[in-house]
Amino acid sequence: VLIQDSSRQSRVLTTRVVARGVREAIETTELVPAWSPDGRFLAVPDLEDLSGLSIVRADNGRVIKSIENARDPAWTPDATKLVFLRAGKTSTLHLLETGFGPSRILADLGVTYGAPVWSRDGRSVLVVARRDHPGL
């Protein structure tokens, strides 16, 4: 992850190993880091196997927390919470407080389309999803 502070100044925040076979997947996958609105943290997709996120301190590049099987991070506008999706048979929406303890499940979603989006006041989160209903 390279941070471009100005047209003449940049710094490497963190580096990751990209495994063989993953390089091709990266070209077809949206792997977007998510800045916390206060600029203190960055949620970075793990490039080794495309199966998780790392929460990194923006000032020194130190990994605060690694989250397995997580994708599509989104911070609240006040930077106090992070939601992300976790895939399994269906996707689930998880919430992580900035104390970086265990996350909690907010909802079982089904198949999701895109990253979650917070409301401006940070009280609601929108996720586009499809649930399969047996018998329909």
Can you characterise this structure?
- The structure is a single chain.
- The chain is mainly β and 136 residues long.
- 5% of the residues lie in helices and 43% in strands.
- The protein has one helix spanning 22-28; strands spanning 2-4, 10-12, 34-35, 41-45, 52-57, 63-68, 71-75, 81-86, 91-97, 104-112, 117-118, 125-126, 129-130.
- Strands 7-8-9-10-13 form a 5-stranded antiparallel sheet, with no helix packed on it. A 4-stranded antiparallel sheet has the order 3-4-5-6, with no helix packed on it.
- The radius of gyration is 16 Å and the shape is globular.
Flag low-confidence runs: none
Tell how many strands the DSSP assignment holds: 13
Task: Output the strand order for the largest sheet.
Answer: 7-8-9-10-13
Secondary-structure element order, as H and E?
A: EEHEEEEEEEEEEE
The percentage of residues in β strands lies in 35-45%
- Using only C-alpha atoms, the radius of gyration works out to 16 Å
Compute the separation of the termini in Å: 46 Å
Average the pLDDT over all residues and give the rounded result: 81
Sheet having the most strands? 5 strands, antiparallel
Strand-pairing-aware structural class: mainly beta
Helical fraction: under 10%
Give the overall shape: globular
Query: How many helical stretches?
Result: 1
